[in-house]
Write a structure and sequence with these properties.
Strand 17 and strand 18 form a beta hairpin. The chain starts with 7 loop residues before the first strand and ends with a strand. The chain has a domain of 135 residues: Ribonuclease Inhibitor (Leucine-rich repeat, LRR (right-handed beta-alpha superhelix), Alpha-Beta Horseshoe). The strands form 9 sheets. It has a 5-stranded mixed beta sheet with strand order 4-3-6-8-10, with no helix packed on it. A 5-stranded mixed beta sheet has the order 16-17-18-20-22, with no helix packed on it. By secondary structure, the protein is mostly beta strands. The chain is built from 3 helices and 29 strands.
């Protein structure tokens, strides 16, 4: 039989349909398909089968690309490969791709549709940052890791399901999203409670999904760690209650919470990390426990209304705290907040 002599077939991207004879034997051989790029002016560029990677920044800031189908020889997509391709609307990534690096589609603000490879093992940090038109995406079961801010600002996303094999979610990958968050019934590492993402044991709050018109949020008792970026850009929140069980609060946790007016950090927390309350422009008072030994870079940057700090230790204890740069309300020469000592 003639099919026995065929090892593989290459065919051009322009071929959209096959004859019944081809369909009869296409699964018996290795079928290799070219890819293509469609530009705003309507012309097409063929991406020939055989290329194995899209290099770092290869199409960086290309504002003429509308659609991409990658050839099924591509194995990796480099860091920032399609950064700021602001006219890009659709992408098809074949199953040959196992590696998509961070920032790959950063700022692709018109990207609506993406077909993901079913073989990728991770979604790197900031991969889809700023893809505000992205309406849906399926995370394949092959994924084990989702990185920081992976879907930051994907405002059009309606829902995401964390699949079976994801074992690590770094910080809050859904900053600026308001989607329906679901967990596969087979995933043993995470859980969703009231549309917020926690570790399976409930001890780490990983992602907070703001509800419409929600102005207050109580972190559940029993939570011991609050992830980086957890309430970032939650401009409607006026009050956040942190229980006494919390021992660690991540960097940038309350960044741009512009309506947050007061907050109390529980005893046992040892540091206030980089950017924790940065741009909390309505914050007037805060309670800081004696256990805090460090206030890191920009923790209270641009907190111009901060007037009162209620500290759990003495003045001598306060002076031992390592306060880093860009915290002028705590250590500046002028306009400092008033520190109240020995407050419980």
């Amino acid at each position: 039989m003639i099919y026995d002599k065929i090892n593989h077939i290459d065919y051009a991207a322009e071929v959209k349909e096959m004859t019944p004879m081809f369909n009869e034997f296409k699964n018996m051989v290795n079928v290799h398909k070219d890819g293509w790029i469609i530009y705003k002016d309507g012309h097409e560029e063929t991406l020939k089968y055989g290329m194995t990677e899209i290099k770092e920044k290869e199409y960086y800031d290309n504002k003429n690309i509308v659609s991409i189908v990658l050839p099924d020889s591509v194995k990796s997509i480099g860091n920032s490969a399609f950064w700021w391709c602001t006219e890009l609307e659709s992408v098809i990534i074949p199953d040959s791709v196992t590696d998509i690096r961070g920032w790959a589609f950063n700022g692709c603000s018109k990207l609506k549709n993406i077909t993901m490879s079913s073989k990728i093992t991770y979604i790197d940090g900031w991969t889809f940052n700023g893809c505000r038109s992205l309406e849906s995406i399926t995370i394949p079961n092959s994924v084990t890791y989702i990185g920081e801010n992976a879907f930051n600002g994907c405002r059009a996303l309606q829902s995401i399901t964390i699949p079976d094999n994801v074992t690590k979610i770094y910080d809050n990958p859904f900053v600026g999203c308001n989607l329906n968050l679901q967990i596969s019934s087979q995933n043993k590492y995470f859980k969703v409670v009231d549309n917020n993402l926690y570790s399976a044991d409930g001890k780490t709050l990983i992602s907070y999904m703001p509800k419409e018109n929600e102005t207050e949020f109580d972190v559940p008792e029993g939570v011991t760690a609050i992830a980086n970026n957890i309430f970032k850009d939650c401009g409607k929140l006026e009050k956040i209650t942190i229980p006494g069980s919390v021992r660690a609060i991540g960097c940038d946790a309350f960044w741009w919470c512009t309506n947050l007016k007061s907050i109390a950090i529980p005893e046992g927390v040892k540091s206030i990390g980089n950017g924790t309350f940065c741009h909390c422009s309505s914050l007037t008072e805060i309670r800081i426990p004696k256990s805090v030994a460090a206030i890191e870079f920009m923790a209270f940057h641009n907190c111009e209304t901060l007037s009162d700090v209620y500290y759990g230790g003495s003045k001598s204890d306060w002076n031992k705290i390592k306060i880093e740069k860009n915290n002028k309300k705590l250590k500046g020469l002028f306009g400092r907040a008033k520190i109240h000592y020995n407050c419980k």
